Amino acid sequence: MNNINKLSLEQEFKIALYVNKINTFNKRNVKKYLRDVLRKMMIKDNIIRYSIKNTTG
């Protein structure tokens, strides 16, 4: 259970790629990119919740 919050090497690499990409953006583009990422994360959360709700019980 201690490793549940740790990222895999692949995830760390993806973060490094995102950081490099974000560093090339201007302030306006960073804000737009952040909104897009947050939206995608919320959609992913909804899909996970829906899947859990419909597979149990």
From TrEMBL:
Keyword Plastid attributed: yes
Going by the UniProt record, its keywords in alphabetical order are: Plastid
Keyword Plastid belongs to the record:
yes
SUPFAM superfamilies in the cross-refs: NblA-like
A UniProt-annotated Pfam family: NblA
Gene3D superfamilies, A to Z: Phycobilisome degradation protein NblA
Instruction: State the family it belongs to.
Output: Belongs to the ycf18/nblA family.
The protein's name in its UniProt record: Uncharacterized protein ycf18
Which species is the source of this protein?
Answer: Pleurostichidium falkenbergii
